[in-house]
Design brief:
Layout lengths: L3 H7 L7 E2 L5 H11 L3 E6 L2 E7 H9 L27 H11 L3 E6 L2 E7 H24 L3
Parallel strand pairs: 1-2
Antiparallel strand pairs: 2-3, 4-5
């Protein structure tokens, strides 16, 4: 069964994009926009402090009428971050995302943070696997051309 490490190796983006806990929400949102991502790992040096997501912007900033230019990330980030190991199987990761109703999960090994997987990454993986099955079954049924 494929693992978190396998999915990370298939991602086009390289590395983990982080933001300082002292950054403004406006700067963090701009970074997410520029990188075309839905979350940032909040780190102070090598230490994981939290995760800042689109939901945090919506629920904890916009819905509460806060000013994104003056609100700092550490005041509105998610601090109880679920982290998975690189050998965690895809089915288990999907179950974690569903159970906790989250869309992003950092992957960390013995030597630190390796990447972040999103629900979109898992959906793309499933779609590709399904496409390969369809191709295989089509060839099996109709023969190779």
């Amino acid at each position: 069964m494929p693992t978190a490490r396998d999915l990370l190796s298939q991602k086009k983006s390289g590395g983990v994009i982080t933001v300082s806990p002292d950054a403004t929400v406006k700067d963090a949102a701009r970074l997410m926009h520029d990188q075309r991502i839905g979350s940032l790992v909040v780190a102070d040096g090598e230490a994981l402090k939290g995760i800042f997501t689109e939901r945090d912007v919506l629920w904890r900033v916009v819905a509460q009428g806060r000013d994104a230019a003056t609100t700092i990330v550490k005041d509105v980030m998610t601090v109880d971050v679920i982290v998975v190991r690189p050998d965690r199987e895809v089915d288990e990761i999907e179950a974690i995302l569903r159970e906790h109703r989250i869309r992003h999960v950092p992957v960390a090994g013995d030597h630190g943070l390796l990447g972040v997987l999103s629900i979109g990454d898992l959906n793309a993986f499933r779609a590709d696997a399904d496409h390969q099955k369809v191709e295989y079954l089509t060839e099996y049924i109709y023969g190779r051309s």
